[in-house]
Predict the 3D structure of the following.
Amino acid sequence: MELTALSPRRMLLRVADGIDGPLLAIGLCLAALGIATLFSASYENPGRVTAQVANLCVALLAMWLVAQIPPQTLMRVAVPAYFLGVALLIAVALAGDVVNGARRWLHVGVTRFQPSEMMKLALPMMLAWYFHKNEATLRLRDFLVAAVLLAVPVLLIARQPDLGTAVLVAAVGFYVIFFAGIGWKVLVGLGLLGAASLFPLWGMLHDYQRRRILTLFDPSQDPLGAGYHTIQSTIAVGSGGLTGKGWLHGTQTHLEFIPERHTDFIFAVFSEEFGLIGNVALLTLYTLLIARGLMIAANAATFFARLLAAAVTLMFFTYAFVNMGMVSGVLPVVGVPLPFISYGGTALLTLFIGIGILMSVHNHRRLVQT
Amino acid sequence: MRFTEFKNHEREMYLFQLRVGFAGVAVLIAFALLFARFFQLQVVQHEAYASKAEDNRISIVPIAPNRGLILDRNGVVLARNYSAYTLEIFPAKVKDVERTIQELSEVIDVQPKDRSRFRKLHAETRNAESLPIRTRLSDEEVARFAANRYRFPGVEIKARLFRQYPYGALASHVIGYIGRISTKDQERLTELDVEANYRGTDFIGKAGLEASYEQELHGTTGMEQVEIDAAGRGIRTLARTPAQAGNNVTLTLDIKLQEVAEAAFGERRGALVAIEPSTGGILAFVSMPGFDPNLFVDGIDPQSWSELNNSPDRPLNNRAIAGVYPPGSTFKPYMALAALELGKRTPKSAINDPGYFEFGGRRFRDSKAGGHGHVDLFKSIVVSSDTFYYQLANDMGIDAIAGFMAKFGFGSKSGIDLEGESTGVLPSPEWKQKRFRRPEQQKWYAGETISIGIGQGYNAYTPIQIGVALATLAANGDMYRPRLVSHIDNLRTGERRHIEPVLQQRLPLKPENVEFVKRAMAGVNKQGTGARAFGNAEYTNGGKTGTAQVVGMKQGEKYDEKKVAERHRDHSLFIVFAPLESPKIALMAIVENGGFGARAAAPIARTVLDYYLLGKLPVTEAPAGVAVKPGAAAADEEESD
């Protein structure tokens, strides 16, 4: 009844309640660029564009819903979400579907779903919850516990194998630990230890795994196999030049030299058609997104909200950095999509939920803890 | 207290914001580095990459390697390649596939069979760029299409290599066949991390040696850098790494011997395995009926497929490794050996055979009414006394039997170099426990042990297991892993890799016991149940007949009445090795529903041995027992096996 009394203008305000304008604008700009690029990349399959628009609508709805939830509620679901995620990952290891040689998918009724995807948000929530609970008395022991909470899902995902997601989940978990205030000395020590452990690790690898790693440094070693992606995407980026070849006019794209051009390698398409100017625009959008996110984190009301917001923001950064790095041939090829641009409903959903979390934190920044 | 907490909070906030600031700077540096990379690629090296993109235009085209040949032990080619023209449609470049096919059929003969095959391929194949609508075009057809080419964008003539099996159905279960790479195959290739090597390859081994030696036969894919125009058409070749042909695989199998063996089967169903006992090399490997593997090469049309798949004779079933049969009386020599080894019987042990063995108020009947009278261990094998072995099995107990038979490989995969081997069933209380769910079924009853002694009951083994067990006995306990391949040749390097015999185990059997059983088996073929087939053989040999009861039929199979009766008849088995001293061949043969072992399987074994040891070809006449009327089986009833 009250609803009928609302004027259209007030209804709009009601819907816009809790939506952060700058975040939404940046997200929509990126998604629009993504759909334009996808249109060019999937000229042979226009159905993908329609599908991605539908994905976007679902993702925006999810973002709106999450933005309405106060961080305290998120904190309450953190623990169950984490353990559910770990349980599902174990279920995948035991009974998952194998697609392209990796066991990542779990059947749920009629649909399949990747539990590793939910870990991207469940893990930082869990770690932020843990640090929040022990806020007053944080010591090294707590960071060790956090490291274990981080390692379990990451190892489960890495052995699927899904290196890209494992890297992302590990990174986002690490960010929480970093923002929680782990000592610099410990950090540097761990870094050195990690570097030292690479040598025995190399000895444990299979021949083909070593070959893959070597190919990262010299793609020409395997021009038909793993190196092919990098060689072709680098050419695409380089040939784009300052201004690009123009939308729909990328020869690398349209002569089918770029593999996976609508998913992980869509940046090659973008870069070829829009050139350095386009890349700078894209970097700027990401920078704005991250700046806004970090600002929200810095002003957040609770420890939990701060940690979660900062970690999610840096997750966006990791997505973008790793993807653009691999497409331009400076980082290894791991399966990481370009955030908000690559085709795929699940990734888009996770990303916009991430934005929703930032909005929620922002909305409740003035809530005084009792 | 509250004050310090507040201070802590302040300090914490400060620390956090410091770290956020640090992160912000790190992000900016990282993006600056990316920008530097973009600048390097897109401005500094732009010229170079632009021309590379222009050259791209240089496309890397994989060159599929020639598949290795399969040869028999004497170098006779069993699987080879030939080049032929095919007419292929690029589904992605054609608007209306059905209409294109319709128009094509005005220029070139397109049978309904071709269409249905094309549709099947279209539905099943992984994102293939082109699919054949017609294979093996004649020169005239090629010319006719060339003249009409302008009408058919997205349709091309291609020269392709095809697999051919010159012997057709002969040894089809050994050689197997290749087929188009399916989605499932593709997943396996990805798992093995060899997908790069399969770029440009359309076919993969699907069955038989073509599948199990896929890695050897396939070869290494080469590549060609081709300059293409803006539309993607090739202009000229710039560089070329030739493909390396797959390795040639040479078998231990003798195709002539195989031919003799398959001919001896005629129209009958069954299996035969002949092994060289001193190496495990397989000399002949028969599963009847077979199929023509050439049907699969172009992609089998649905009608031929359903004929093969639905035939009651099940020609696609590799009976020699996947069929399981009770061994019947061919089990008895091993039972006798077990009795001697375990001290349950001596060569002198004898019974009086009244024609039955009574246990728990139930009579287990001998196949010879009235029994064989005085029977010692030697005679028990020669005349195949059931009563003797009922009693022996009862005395030994199921655990002792199962323990001994396991050593001969009964009930475990032989490890032959083919895929799809069955395990069979070596009955034991443990097996029963696992096999059944209801507690009353899980229990082993002493009465069940009794028919195990004559190779019936739950006993179920593959022909290859029965063959390997015999070869092991013939080699005095040396068990070699059975294998079909003798060596593999790399044509490029000229290197030859021998597949060395693998001695799996050396059974610690007492020589005098083995000797005794072998002599008794020689007796079988001189004056016993095998004498009719082998009495006049020109070489020394030892054998054993066997008859396996057919335990009912599967539900849902429909045959006419005569056929049902035929398919309910016993399976006929025969095992034989020769010569007696240092055997060169150990052979098992089974004829499904062939009746008594002596009648159907033994003559086949004789024919094969005569050819292998003497080079004698069989006199061409209808093989014995090929058309036995149901009445004739009854006439043989008193014949014991």
User: Anything to note?
Assistant: The first strand of chain B starts at residue 58 and ends at 63.
